[in-house]
Write a structure and sequence with these properties.
5 helices, mainly alpha, 2 domains
Amino acid sequence: MKMEMKRQDMEELFQLLEVYERTYGGSVVSERRKELWARYRGATVENISEKRNPRGAGRKSQYTEEEKQRIRELRDRGMSICGIAEGTGCSVGYVQGVLSDTSKRGVQ
């Protein structure tokens, strides 16, 4: 049997099987879930679609990466979050979000 499900669909299927098993019990569901999990783990990456948003839909970023880097630099210089927000024309919450995003700072 060839596996051509999206990762998100597969995760939802596992969740539904767990709910069914808790509600109705039974070893048949448990065995099926284990079988599906084995197939899922054995599937190659090419067979499981990683991309969750293939059309690129959704809200686009209003600020460029350079502007985000400027926010980080201003904070490193000791400027307050409110001051950065006023100076860059964005909200305080956005500044806090940029500063808390550790993936862009290289922090682990």
